[in-house]
Every structure is written in structure tokens, then in C-alpha cells.
């Protein structure tokens, strides 16, 4: 959670504000976020969003959340059209350059267990199912 907070606190002032949220969305490729949308997000907090408030808010959002749904939602950030798959090259780049970075070996292991299809896509829905249930869907 500390790493997530640090990534979102783009200006490193110890608080997440509208500008930080806008920069975070931009880093994820979403450039046209409406000001009203950002204001609504910030208003969800009881005050300035420092790390403690951030943790409290996350705890409230995750209460009762299905772990598979949580993992799917993380992948859906990279799949705005909701296709259920992501280009393997793109997810490899993201995993090796963002947040808690994967090594080349970790990427190799992931693609050995979950190889991309002939079009170079990773079926993240199946990946999430296996992570949470331990076996592939039929």
C-alpha cells in the first residue's frame, strides 16, 4: 500500500490531491479525465488524503470484495474496452517498468504458466481464475 500511495503522490508532498490523481491517470494512458470526476474522488475522503487516510479508504473499499474481482479490476485498468485480454508485450512492459517491478525471470515464469495466444494476447480472466481458484476453467 505504501508503494501504491507513493506512485499516486506524484508531487511527493505526502498527500494525494486532484493534480496527483490527474497525473496518475495520465501515467496509465487516460488523459481526458474530467475535473468533476477528480473532485468526486477527492470528496470521498474525510479530509486531506495522507497515507493513513489512504489506508482507511482502501480498507473500506475492499471490505467484502471478492479477491478474484479485485484482481480482475486491476487488469481491467489495462483493458478499457473490456475484451478480457491484454497484449502480452504491453503487460510485460507495464510489469517491468511500474510499481513493484517484475524481473525478466518472473516475466518468463508468468508466460510459461500462462502463454499468450497466437495473436499475442494474455487471457487475464483465465489468469485471475487460476490465481484465485488454483485450476484452469474448462
Automatic annotation (TrEMBL):
The lineage's top-level taxon is: Eukaryota
Q: Which GO terms describe its molecular function?
A: calcium ion binding
* Domain EF-hand: start-end pairs: 1-31, 66-101, 102-137
State the InterPro entries in the record: EF-hand-dom_pair, EF_Hand_1_Ca_BS, EF_hand_dom, Myosin_RLC
A UniProt-annotated Pfam family: EF-hand_6
Q: Which UniProt keywords apply?
A: Calcium, Metal-binding, Repeat
Cite the record's note on assembly: Myosin is a hexamer of 2 heavy chains and 4 light chains.
Q: Which PANTHER family match?
A: MYOSIN REGULATORY LIGHT CHAIN 2
> Mind telling me what this protein is named?
MLRB protein
Q: Which organism is it from?
A: Centropus unirufus
Per UniProt, what is the name of the gene that codes for the protein in this document? Answer: Mlrb
Amino acid at each position: 500500500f505504501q508503494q501504491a500511495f507513493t506512485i499516486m503522490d506524484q508531487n511527493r508532498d505526502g498527500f494525494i490531491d486532484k493534480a496527483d490523481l490527474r497525473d496518475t491517470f495520465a501515467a496509465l494512458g487516460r488523459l481526458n479525465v474530467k475535473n468533476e470526476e477528480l473532485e468526486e474522488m477527492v470528496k470521498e475522503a474525510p479530509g486531506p488524503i495522507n497515507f493513513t487516510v489512504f489506508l482507511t479508504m482502501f480498507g473500506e473499499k475492499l471490505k467484502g470484495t471478492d479477491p478474484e474481482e479485485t484482481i480482475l479490476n486491476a487488469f481491467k485498468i489495462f483493458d478499457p474496452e473490456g475484451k478480457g485480454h491484454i497484449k502480452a508485450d504491453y503487460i510485460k512492459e507495464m510489469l517491468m517498468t511500474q510499481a513493484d517491478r517484475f524481473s525478466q525471470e518472473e516475466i518468463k515464469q508468468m508466460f510459461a504458466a500462462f502463454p499468450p495466444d497466437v495473436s499475442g494476447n494474455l487471457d487475464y480472466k483465465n489468469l485471475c481464475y487460476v490465481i484465485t481458484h488454483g485450476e484452469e476453467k474448462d
